[in-house]
Write a structure and sequence with these properties.
four-stranded parallel beta sheet; binds malonyl-coenzyme A; 3 domains; GMP Synthetase, Chain A, domain 3; Rossmann fold; 15 helices
Length: 506
């Protein structure tokens, strides 16, 4: 983009400043929030943050549901230059404790309905101030916002100032905070708005969570920059989405959204007669799903490729051929190369690791210089951990992963974290956690366990895991083996396990 804005909020507002009365969030059974409303609400949040002493560069951790105030909290952080740290609402108290200690926030906003002991968690992690916000937009945060005058001041930021930190699971089992800058988010939003032909009269159906890149940045930044209205669904409820689709012109989803729509006999071309664009990302869309969707709805889903550390990287074209199984071309100013194990660029058609550079690439991991260094090549390219090949014309096709990462329903899950929990349990000698094909979730988590003496029963294991791990990380199935297959170096051969258990969920 030509010149970077001085604040991401000002940039987003440039898309809707001229239409304060326009509906922004349209909600079923709840009041519509106009662009003017969100502008005022976020200014009130900014006033509250400043009144509570939150300074630019300090972290604000939020584990809150999907509501207008939750969104105003994000935008309020942008206004004051605080670093917004959204957390998956499914995280357990044990997981939250880790994030709070790691992020060291100046302010933490949680939901008592999910975490009854917010006070204890905040105290244990030495968080100076905490407030709560429930799904219905009630709670001490809502009360404090309502009692605060809007503060119209918008903090000037430098292009490489960090505006958000998103945790990504890591190969070692500990999540890392990916630091995203003003440059990262502004350049991505500007590119996508143009690339996907965002228009003022677009109506986005939004059923994604707003604690990840996809739902928060990709979807909502595009809508705000376009000054478009949003059908704001609290979650992906297939029947509710299908019933509302006929009003929408754009929908973004993970592949599970599309496979669930296909599984709904009432879904068809008539359900989406106003639609101009279905977009899919966060996990691979199977060519079979792409074809079935095209046949049933008449729409060829636009698949794009991204990751937390680099936002959106490539996209199939809006005009031009969308090819199933490919993720299209690099976004403007983004460079993609495919390299071999030694980092040498490979010729077109050959499969290697995908590496990325450009204004979208993150600034590094929070307080983890070694992991940051390991993520980059000496010349600054980010190692994605994904395998793929580039066609001669630059079209990218992904071909699996260099790591053990599992993607289930669009959530990234690293086996190590689950294995660490399993290995600590009595009666388990060792474990190997793998992802196997699953019709609904793309991949599902399967745990292969080796007993130590009398094996514990599966219910006991699941109960123990439920205390430590969010539900989406917990194995959908447990199988026992007398030993794990290992290579001559002693490394567990997960590929053999993936092949052996490939049909577990057929
Ligand atoms: C929910 N569950 C999951 C799950 N989501 N389990 C595995 N994987 C998931 N993704 C659990 C629930 O807790 C529940 O547990 C059970 O599975 C069934 O729940 P459900 O009602 O069927 O699930 P649902 O709430 O419908 O959620 C499924 C989903 C949701 C696919 C709609 O996970 C979702 O919205 N995913 C989107 C993720 C996303 O936004 N990713 C973007 C990352 S950004 P129980 O107790 O009933 O057994 C990124 C960058 C990029 O990756 O490129 O975009």
């Amino acid at each position: 983009m030509a010149a970077l804005p001085e604040n991401l909020y000002s940039f987003l507002r440039s898309g809707f400043a001229s239409c304060p009365g326009k509906p922004f969030l349209l909600r079923d059974g709840a009041a519509t929030i106009s662009y003017g409303d969100i502008d005022r609400l976020s200014a009130q949040v900014a006033g509250l943050l400043r009144a509570r002493g939150v300074l630019p560069g300090e972290r604000v951790v939020a584990q809150v549901g999907k509501s207008p105030l939750a969104l105003a909290l994000y935008l309020g952080c942008l206004r004051v230059g605080a670093i917004y740290v959204p957390l998956n609402t499914a995280y357990t108290a044990a997981e939250l404790d880790y994030f709070l200690r790691d992020a060291r926030p100046a302010l933490f906003i949680g939901a008592l309905q999910e975490q009854p002991d917010l006070a204890g968690l905040a105290r244990a992690a030495d968080v100076p101030v905490w407030l709560h916000l429930e799904d219905d937009d009630r709670g001490s945060f809502a009360e404090a916002v309502a009692a605060t005058e809007p503060d119209a001041d918008i903090t000037t930021m430098a292009p490489d100032d960090v505006v958000a930190m998103l945790y990504t699971s890591g190969t070692t089992g500990r999540s890392k905070g990916a630091l995203l800058t003003l440059r990262n988010l502004a350049s991505n939003a500007a590119s996508l708005q143009t690339l996907w032909g965002w228009q003022h009269d677009d109506l986005l159906l939004h059923a994604l969570p707003i604690f990840h890149v996809h739902g928060l940045f990709v979807a909502l930044h595009c809508a705000m920059l376009g000054g478009s209205s949003v059908l704001f669904h609290p979650r992906f409820d297939c029947a509710a989405v299908r019933a509302d689709l006929h009003r929408a012109t754009v929908m973004m989803g993970v592949p599970t959204f599309y496979t669930r729509l296909l599984a709904d006999p009432a879904f068809g071309a008539a359900s989406c007669h106003n639609m101009r664009l279905f977009i899919s990302g966060s996990a691979p869309l199977l060519p079979a799903s792409f074809e079935a969707f095209a046949e049933r709805s008449g729409h060829r889903i636009l698949e794009r490729y991204g990751m937390t550390e680099a936002g959106m990287i490539s996209s199939n074209p809006l005009h031009g051929e969308r090819i199933a199984g490919t993720v299209g071309y690099a976004l403007p100013e983004v460079r993609i190369r495919v390299v071999d194990a030694s980092g040498r660029a490979l010729p077109p058609g050959e499969i290697g690791e995908v590496e990325i550079s450009g204004p979208n690439v993150f600034a590094g991991y929070w307080r983890q210089p070694e992991k940051t260094a390991a993520a980059f090549r000496p010349d600054g390219y980010l190692r994605s951990g994904d395998l793929g090949s580039l066609a001669a014309d630059g079209r990218l096709t992904l071909a699996g992963r260099a790591t053990d990462l599992i993607i289930s329903g669009g959530y990234n899950i690293y086996p190590k974290e689950i294995e660490n929990c399993l290995d600590a349990l009595d009666g388990i000698a060792e474990s190997a956690v793998i992802g196997v094909p699953h019709a609904d979730l793309g991949e599902a988590v399967l745990a292969v366990l080796v007993p130590a003496g009398e094996p514990p029963d599966a219910d006991q294991i699941m109960a123990a895991l439920a205390r430590r791990l969010a539900r989406f990380k917990q194995p959908r199935r447990i199988v026992w083996l007398p030993q794990l297959p290992r290579n001559s170096m002693g490394k567990v051969q997960k590929q053999l396990l993936r092949e052996r258990f490939a049909h577990s969920f057929d």
